[in-house]
Amino acid sequence: MKTEDTIHRSFCSAYAEAVLRFVVEGRNGDVVFDQATQQFNAIVVAADVPPTHCEWWVGKDWTSFVGPIGCRIDARDPQFSDSALRHEIVFALAKSPTGKRMSRILAGLD
What we know:
Blueprint: H1 4-25, E1 29-34, E2 39-44, E3 57-58, H2 62-66, H3 82-95, H4 97-106
Antiparallel strand pairs: 1-2, 1-3
């Protein structure tokens, strides 16, 4: 079994991937835990899928979970950088007690 820290890092990375997909393409996502591989994955969900049908829905309210970010978050902004946004999200969630708690719950560790 993978360590709790490795599982949490996969949550942060998958969440960042889902946010980037939403910001750049406008597609909602879900972050799901794969029990077999012991890691989180970001998947695309149809626009009409309600958040209650997802493990951890990612859409227009993603900033309320991540919190303040020190980079551009609008893909139309000429200074937008997907790598900067990914880094900021992973950094914020890696340090967040809420992010750690959610990864534990979704992975079935709690």
